[in-house]
Amino acid sequence: MTEVLFRDDSYLVEAKANVVFADQRGIALDRTVFYPQGGGQPGDQGVLLLADGRSIAVVNTVYDTDRKTILHVPAEGTDLPAVGAGVVARIDWDRRFRRMRAHTALHLLSVVLPYPVTGGSVGDAEGRLDFDSGDAVLDKAEVERRLNELIAIDAPLSQRWITDAELEANPSLVKTMSVKPPSGTGRVRLIAIEGLDLQPCGGTHVARTGEIGRASVTQIEKKGKINRRVRIALASP
Ligand SMILES: [Zn+2]
Fold it and tell me: Which of 14, 87, 186, 194 makes a 20 to 30 Å CA pair with 165?
C-alpha cells in the first residue's frame, strides 16, 4: 500500500521515497506525489532521481490490481532500480497544474449545469463532462459566462472526510453516476468549493477557483436523446 502524498497536498512537486518493488509493470514506492490514472484524470508523468545521479523517466502512473499500490511506469527498456533504493520522485508539475485547473473547472461546470453527470475526462488545460440534461437547452455563451463568473469569485477549496455510512445517508452528494466516489476504505473524501459545491472526489484540485484562469466552452455536443457533452478549454495563465 503506497502512502499518497498528493491527497493532502496536491501542490507537492517532489518527495523522497524508497523503492518497495520494481518489475515490468512499474516501480512501487513507499510514498509518492504521483497521481495514478483514475476518475477521468490521466496518471502523472515525471522522473525518479536515484542517488547515483541516474534519472528514470516515468511515462504514466497507475494503480496495481490491489487498487492500493501505485505503480510508476518507466519508459520501455529502463534499468529498474534495486529494492530499498532511495529516490526523489518528482512530477511534471506544469502538466499536473494544467490538469488541476481543468479538473477544478469541471467541478464548477457541474454547478453551472446542475444535472446528473454520466461521464467525464480531464486533459491538459481542457476537459469535458457528459450531462443527463433532459429537455434543457444549453446555451454555449451563457454557460461560458456563468462558468467564468464562478471562477472569478476566487472561492477557496477545502477537503474533509466522511464515513461510507454518512455518504450513503446523503446520496444527493454524488453527482456522477458513472464514476463512483472512491470507497471501500470506510471513508470518503469530500471536496468543498466554499459556498458553491460539495462532492466526493479523489482527484487533484487547485486551492482557489481564481487559479483556473479564463475558461471557454468549446463545444456542446448531442450524445443521444438526453445526453449533452460539454467541452471546456482554459487559457494559458
Ligand atoms: Zn475533483
Answer: 194
